[in-house]
Structures are given as C-alpha cells and as structure tokens.
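Lab notes, practical 5.
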Amino acid sequence: MGKVVLRWSAAVLFTVTATAGLCSAQSVAEAPAYTRSEAMVPVRDGVKLHVVLLRPAGSETQGDALPFLMQRTPYGVDTATSEQVHKQKPELAASGYIFVFADIRGRYKSEGQFVMNRPVVAHTSKNDVDETTDTRDTIDWLLKNVPHNSGKVGVYGISYPGFLAAMAGIDAHPAVKAISPQAPMTNVWLGDDFFHNGAFRETYGFDYVQQLEAQKTDVRVQSKEDTFDFFLQNVNFEGAAKAAGMAGLPTAMRFLNEPAYTRFWQGMAVEQRQTKVEVPTLEVGGYWDQEDMWGPQAEYAALKPHDAKQQVFLVLGPWNHGGWGGPARTLGAIDFGEPTGEEYRTTIEAPFFELYLKSRPGYALKDVASFRTGVNQWKRYEAWPPKLGFTAKKLFLAPEKALTLVQPTGVYDTKAAAYVADPADPIPYRHRPVQPTYGEGSTWRTWLAEDQRFVSGRKDVANFQTAPLDRDNTITGDIKADLFAATTGTDADWVVKLIDVYPDDAPGAMAGYQLMVAEEIFRGRYRKSFEQAEAVKPGEVDEYRWSLHGADHTFLKGHRILVEVQSSWFPLYDRNPQTFVPNIMSAAADAYRPETISIYGSEKYPSHIEFLEPSEEGR
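Output from the prediction step:
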C-alpha cells in the first residue's frame, strides 16, 4: 500500500467545563481543536473501509507523536467532529489523541457485506475475513499512512462497538496496547440482545434486525401503535415478521429456524474466544443496562483466570446502556447523589488509556470498581464476584408470601404460592403503551428502573416480601435464583425479580417505590440443555437455577426486600404457549393456553435467592 496524503479540514471547537482529575491541569481554553479528514482503507480481500480521523490541530508535525483511539461501529461515522469528541470524551480529548471512527464492513460508506456479529473464522486465505482481520488491516494502514503517530492504539466502544472492541483483543495487532469493551454484545443467545436463557427478546430482535439488516444505514423502527397489541395480534414472531415484511432478513431467518442454542449462535459467542489476555482490558457495564448487562461480566469471567499480569479490570455502575457517557447522577426517578459517569471517566477510563497509551501514571484500579447503590458509594474489590470479606447467604421463598433467611422446616413439600398464567393476558414488561425500542417517546432506556407497582397487584404474580428491615442489608455479587416449581402445562417461562420496596414515607416520588435490583428470565424447555428443548412434565416439580446477574445494593433500614415471580414479560419476551411445541416462533394460536403455576418453598423444595453479604470488612 502506498503512502496517502491526508487533507485535514478545520473543525469547530466545542467548549467544555474542565473536570477534576486528568483535566484539572488543562483549562478549557487549552483544550485542543481537532481537525478532520476521511479515507477509504483497503483491507486484505480488496474491500475498502471508510474512516474518519480527528486529531489536534497542528499535531501532524508538531509536539509529541500521538497514539490512536479507535472506535469501529455499524452506526455511521459521518457525524464525527471535533465537537463530538469534546462532548463524548472530554477528558481524553483534552489530553490529545488521534481519534479514528470507522464504518465496519458493509455499513454506511464501507464496502463489502455486513454480517451481524460476524464470528471469528480460520484465516487460511486472504478472503477469510472477520472483525479481527478488519481491525488489524485498518491498524496497519493507520500506522503507515497517518503522520506523526506514536505506534500505539487503543480501542473502545459501547454495545455493538463494544463487541468490536473485544474483537481487537483477539489475535491482537502488536500496536494495540489497551481495549475497553463497554456493554459489549458478547453472547446474543445466552444473555445479551436477542435471547436470555432461551427466551426470545421479541421486540428488540424485531426492531434491531430491521435497523441493521434492512438497510445500509440504521434508520430506526417507528410506529404509533402499542407494540403490546401488535405482537399479541400477530400471535408469534413468524406472524410479526411477515406483517413487517422482514422474515427474509438474515438474522430474522435464524430466529425463525434456529431458536435453540445451535452452532450458529455458539459461533458468534465472544467469551469462548477469550482464552488468553493479549492486551490490557477494561470491561464496563451498568446494573440497569437494558441491552447488554450480561456481556461485560461474562467477558471479565472468561479473561480473569488467564490474567497473569493483572491487566483485566471491571467497572460496574448504576447505569443503563452506555449511561456512563453522561453525568449519570440520576436514572429515571433514582438519584445517586453524585455524577457517577463523570467520576468513572475522570478517575478510571481516562487514566487507563493514559497509562497504556502514553505511559502516564495515575491509574489506580487494581481489579474491580463497583458503585454500591442504596448507600451510593464506590467500592473496590479484588475480584468479581467479590470474595474477601463476604459470606454466601440465601433468601428463602416461604409460605404465606414470606421471604426469610431461615429455610422452611416442618413443611416437607408445601406450595408457597400458585397463580394462573394466561398467554392471552401477558404481563407487560414496562408501562403501556409500549413504543418501538428506539421509537419516538420510547421509555426503553430506563424501563429497568421503572416503579414495579404497575404489575405487583396482578393475580398472576407471586410476591414474597420481608417485614420492614431493622437494619441496612447489602446484597452483592452474582445473584442467583434457585426455583422449585411446577406447571400444569408442558412448558413455562420463569421470571424472578429482586425488588427494593421503599417505605411509604420516603420523600417525593420514591414513596412506596418498587425498584428492581436484579432480574432475569428462564425458558423452561431448556432446563436440561440449551441445545435441545424438552417438554416439561405436567405437575412435576423441577428445579430451575439461573443467574439474575450482578448487583451491589444496600436495602436501607425501613425498606422491604421483595422477590416477585411471574411467567411472562411481554412483549420484550415472546409469549410461551405453555404447551410444548417444536418451535415457539411459529406456534399455532390454539397452542397458547392458560396453566396453573406452583412455586414451592419448603424443606424438600427450598426455593431461594443466593447472594453475598459483606462482613464488617466488606462494608
């Protein structure tokens, strides 16, 4: 590849207020204006990928050579400007980097074919390409063609770009010195965007696949109709996909034909490729991430056992999807008392890249940083889940709607609760009307923090609750549900929600508020194997055990702890017919039947929630 002369155009400086930490020594007036250029980067199979480059004005020949900070994305890079980098990454922009924003293969101005979450392949010929090869080839070109660079590259991104950042750490280019996968799409069947433990995320899959595969740009699905009604009327995903004319899109076809955890979905999984630590890695996630809460915790768990040089770090905060990009003092009605996003960026993210790309001291995180909600305090742990200073505990679901630390005795096989789950009247996952995921007026981004009282009075939920707490109680770590349950049907979904119930005299909008702290769904047909669905035996008590993901929360004195169990979460998750059918995606209307659900809480069948409780040292 020959040398290419880049022509830089002046861009407008966006003035920001200097923040504490990294930027405190640099006033706003000193923050550099960035100049902009574009290029088409040829990669090994002849395809050309579009990039936008932003660098401090005059740095092409003056001052220290600068490292690259790269973000690859399917969402388009034409809007990348000096204003954008100062707004989104003020701390790093003030320090000075060559920012690279790249359209991935087949998206926007890049050539080639787009493949959703393109899996890593064996590289036996020049036409064997994936996101690791496109990353390497892009970096090769940058090093050779962009003047006055330091030869070091950092890669970051949120969500799909987080997945792409993780790809930069697999078969990593020698110039890559640090990556930060933030809310990365990691395993879209087990726990990220498209399925959770086998339950299909219907509205999200419906909207997102159209957004990325029906066009080369990402125009979002819009509708004035309540999507609750739309999906109910169309019976199943096959009917909804036909109504929208999207059944032929590649990933939609996989949804329809491969609902189980097939080799196709397994091949897309990132965590299975993370068998060694190639570069320092900062994983970032939010406790109220409505899209990719699973990913950063799964990637940390995969990488950490191989972390001989202590270069894998995890940050978990009180955020929704990407919420750490702003001040992040609040989420919906919840106020955390401090700008947690700014704190993360100034004390962790910027120093992380400064250390590994510029050899500047100041990065202090050793392993894990977690913002403990309730008491609203940052905590540092030696691992996740934390170990030192913590004790494993259980909360038992007991008869008479009780929730207790003491396992029920003397009631050998008693039902603790029962309800009728009717697919014709599913439980909504957020307040109606339910707008399209990213549609105008949508409350999608904050639904995990919504007050759950809008469903807690329904007859098709089982509530188990403590008395008002006589002291603060902290629940930390990987929260697990271990449910003993039965159904009169041959299939069922199980949703467990761990909820903080505020007292009635809490101030303002928080009076009586029910805040979900951890929550997750499990599809009964996959209780023995995610690869092979199997009918549930009517009336037989089965054990269902799954993770509700990480939490770090203090239930304050006077609050109550509530565990809520239900069997639908619609239309985010498609309805389970509760009659076993080979493929729920195309289940006939007459397969959807009401069934009686029984939750057990007894000596023989001790349904419970598992968590870690800090000792005095851990507090």
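Observations recorded by the TA: Confidence is low (pLDDT under 50) at residues 1-29. The domain at 391-614 is CATH 2.60.120.260 (Jelly Rolls).
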